[in-house]
UniProtKB/TrEMBL annotation:
The lineage of its organism: Bacteria, Pseudomonadati, Pseudomonadota, Gammaproteobacteria, Oceanospirillales. It catalyses: (8S)-3',8-cyclo-7,8-dihydroguanosine 5'-triphosphate = cyclic pyranopterin phosphate + diphosphate. Catalyzes the conversion of (8S)-3',8-cyclo-7,8-dihydroguanosine 5'-triphosphate to cyclic pyranopterin monophosphate (cPMP). The gene is moaC. Its EC number is 4.6.1.17. The keyword Lyase applies. This is Cyclic pyranopterin monophosphate synthase.
Length: 159
């Protein structure tokens, strides 16, 4: 059998049974970035976008997406998240917005997918709100930065 945990003994996809796992505090941090034209970033930061506060809408979209991850990702467990935080940081020197999503819970399975979903949907929302002024925006570098809790303990991406 492979090291993939979503496969049963016959090689079929399945939802992992976590009922025997201990409840532990778990946290995951994920990041994404959106690169854009300097004029697009300036428009977002000025608050002059006709669609309103782009960063606030992207933040809320990321939070909502984290809470609905199990509806979007097959075989993902529905989780009762205790915290979802989405931070959007403009980096004017590189004309980008860095998105960091943090998800927490006390539960039997990790929250990496929720953090990745939050960061991704926040990035997609930025694109959606600004595509009329900058169709060349690039969403990228979506990755887990850190996870804590559970049997595997603490892991951090070495950048």
């Amino acid at each position: 059998m492979s090291g993939l945990t979503h496969l049963d003994e016959k090689g079929h996809a399945r939802m992992v049974d976590v009922s025997e796992k201990a409840v532990t505090h778990r946290e995951a941090v994920a990041r994404a970035e959106v690169r854009m034209l300097p004029e697009t970033l300036a428009l977002i930061l000025s608050g002059g976008h006709k669609k309103g506060d782009v960063l606030a809408v992207a933040r809320i979209a990321g939070i909502q997406a984290a809470k609905r991850t199990s509806e979007l990702i097959p075989l993902c467990h529905p989780l009762m998240l205790s915290k979802v935080e989405v931070e959007l940081v403009p980096v004017e020197a590189d004309s980008r917005i860095d998105i960091t999503a943090t998800c927490k819970l006390a539960g039997q399975t990790g929250v990496e997918m929720e953090a990745l979903t939050a960061a991704s949907v926040a990035a997609l929302t930025l694109y959606d709100m600004c595509k009329a002024v900058d169709r060349g925006m690039v969403i990228g570098n979506v990755r887990v930065l850190e996870k804590q809790g559970g049997k595997s303990g603490h892991w951090k991406l070495e950048e």
